Structures are given as C-alpha cells and as structure tokens.
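Worked Example 4.2. Consider the chain below.
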Amino acid sequence: MVVVKKVVVTMVDDLDKKSPADETVEFSVDGVAYEIDLTAANAAELRDALKKWIPHARKSNSAKSANGSVAKSRPVADRDQSAAIREWAKGAGFEISARGRISTEVRRAYEKAV
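Applying the procedure from the previous section yields the following structure tokens:
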C-alpha cells in the first residue's frame, strides 16, 4: 500500500489571525527588517499609513543580491531553534512548512509548551 501525504501551507493574515494572507509585506524601522503576511486590504492600509512619511525619506543603499533581496545570514542557534520548533509543531498537529517563516502563533505555542 502506498500512502500519499499532501501538506498544504496556508498563510494567514498576521493582523486579524483568520483571513488568508494575499501577500508578505517587508519593511524596516530603526535598522530592523520586518515582514508581515497580510490581506490585500490590510497591506493597503499599512502602505497608506506610511504614505505620509515616505516622501520625506531617502532610499537606503543596502547591499542586495542579484535577485534584489538583502543578503543576510542567521546564526546557527536560530536555525537549530527553528528546527526544534518545526519538529514540535508537527507533533502538536500544526501544519508547518519545512522552510520559511514560522508564524507567531506557532512560536508562542511552542514557548508555552516547553
């Protein structure tokens, strides 16, 4: 008997915690880069909130790779912790991908459990 398993990852809006996310918005404040998964409406709301400030700002000349993303590395400790969280989450019944961002919901549940 062959068993086929299909894992589906659904990105959820990080603000309302229930709507399917349409996009990941990246932004940076005080040298810290952030990304947030949002519906199209919430992404538009975030962009509207920044419209007041963007015309007065300068674009940063950060070093970017050929695909336009900023090259950054994560410490081994972060990778090890992410691996531990993923392993725990799978055992706890969360749907989680093998790579990419771990949701705040899963991280909080992990921290509560350990």
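The first helix runs from residue 40 to 50. The radius of gyration is 17 Å. Compare this with Example 4.1 before moving on.
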